[in-house]
Amino acid sequence: MVIVRRAALAAIVLCAVSSGALAASSKLNLILGGEAYDGPPKFEVSFDGKLLGEGIVSDAIDTVSTGRFADMADKTPYVQSFEFDIPESLFKPGGEVRVRLVNEAYGGDGSNRDRNLFLAAVTLNGRAVTVSGLQTRGTTAGQQNELVGEFLLLRDGNMEGVSRAPAGGWPAPETTLAQARLVPEQPAVAPLKPPVAVAELTVPEAPAEPVEVAAVEPASLPATAAETSDCTRDELYNVIGFNENSNDLTPRLEARLKQIIADIGPQKCKVLVTGYSSMQGDHATNALFAIERAQNVLGYLKQAGLSFEKASASGGGATAQFGEEFSVNRRVVISVNP
Predict the structure, then answer these.
(1) Within-domain flag for 19
(2) Do 30 and 12 form a contact (C-beta atoms < 8 A)?
(3) Of 272, 276, 304, whose CA–CA distance to 289 is shortest?
(4) Is the peptide bond between 187 and the residue preceding it cis, with omega within 30 degrees of 0?
C-alpha cells in the first residue's frame, strides 16, 4: 500500500510478552494529542461498549503559556501513544473503539484558553485506522468531523471519537515472541534498539534507481517436513529497499525475501519481524509505515509456505541507526531463532 497522504498513527510494539502457547490479550494502541488549560486533558477508552481504562495526555500543549495545538508546525511534543489490553473474553472482530474527553474546560470567548483532545489513530492487534477512518459521534444528530491536520478534534465529553472495525474485522491476537536475539548478519550493522512506541517519520528524498536482483525461487517446503523439522537457524536478516512513502513489496524486495525463504527452508523457527522508517517528516505516519512494512513481510513469508514455531510483526518506528541515508533506514529486520 502506498501512503498518499500523511495519516496519523503510532506505533506500536505488537509482541505479547509470552513464551507459551496460551492465547494473548489483544493490544489496543491510541495516538492522542492534547491542549491543556488548568491541567491536561483526560480521556476514557472503551471497546464494544465496555470501558477499558483512562489516560492523561500529560504532554499536552499549555494554551495559556505556549499556544494552540492547531498553530504548531511541529505537533510532535504534544502527542503521546497509549496502550490498553483487551481481555480475550471481551475481544470481538467487529467491536467499536470509542475515545471520550472527560474533563473539558474552556476559558471563554476570546481567551484562547481551552482543554481539548486530538485523536490521530487507533491500532488493534496491528490493524490501524487513521484519521480518514475515524468518526465523531455525539448528542447532536449528524455530528460532523472536525479535523486539525491529521487529528480528529474532540472538544468536550458530549462527543466521542469512534473507530469502527475495518473491513474484515480486527485481527485476532496471536501468541508472539517474548524476546528474540538479534544476531548481526554480514556485513554487520549497528546494534538494534528495541521497538519504540512513538518516533518521527522520515519522508526520504527520491529513491535510488531500482537494483536488478535475480529472483531466487523459495525452497520447496513439504508440509510434513515443515511441521517436524527442528530449527537450527540463528540469524538476523535485513530487508532493505522500500520506496519512500510506501509499504509495497517491490520485485527487488520479493527477491530478497525469496533468498531468505530458501535459506530457512523447511525448518520451523521462531520469527520476529520488525519494521522501521527513517527520520524525516511528519512523526504521525512513522509507526504506520513501520508496522505495515513488517506485516507485509510476515504475510509474504506465510503465503510462501514458511512454517513457524512462533511469529510476530512489530513496528520499531523511525530510526537513523543503520546509517545517515534515509533509504537504508527504511527496512525490515527478520530475526530467526530456534
Answers:
(1) no
(2) no
(3) 276
(4) yes
Domain membership of residue 283 (yes or no) is yes
For cell 527487488, the residue is 252
pLDDT at 71: 92
Q: What angle do CA 236, 237, 239 make, to 5 degrees?
A: 150
| Domain boundary, last residue among 130, 163, 196 | 163
Q: How confident is the model at residue 279 (pLDDT cuts 50, 70, 90)?
A: confident
* CATH number for position 146: 2.60.60.40
Q: What CA–CA distance (Å, rounded) separates 126 from 120?
A: 15
| pLDDT, mean of residues 175-180 | 34
When divided into structural domains, the chain yields a total of 2
**What distance in Å separates the CA atoms of residue 114 and residue 263, rounded to the nearest whole number?**
58
Does one domain contain both 150 and 258? no
- Give Cβ neighbours of residue 141 (< 8 Å, ≥ 6 apart): none
Measure the CA–CA gap between 329 and 118, rounded to whole angstroms: 29
- Output phi, psi for 223, to 5 deg: -60, -45
Residue 276 lies in domain: 174-338
Q: Is there a contact between 338 and 234 (Cβ–Cβ < 8 Å)?
A: yes
Residue 196 region, left (φ>0) first, then alpha (ψ -120 to 50), else beta?
beta
Residues of the chain with pLDDT > 90, as a percent, come to: 38
Q: For residue range 6-20, list pLDDT tens digits in order.
A: 333 333 333 333 334
Asked if residues 170 and 133 have their Cβ atoms less than 8 Å apart, the reply is no
**8 A C-beta contact, residue 332 and residue 175:** no
CATH number at residue 320: 3.30.1330.60
How are beta strands 97-101 and 159-163 bridged, if at all?
antiparallel
Enter the C-alpha cell of residue 19: 513464551
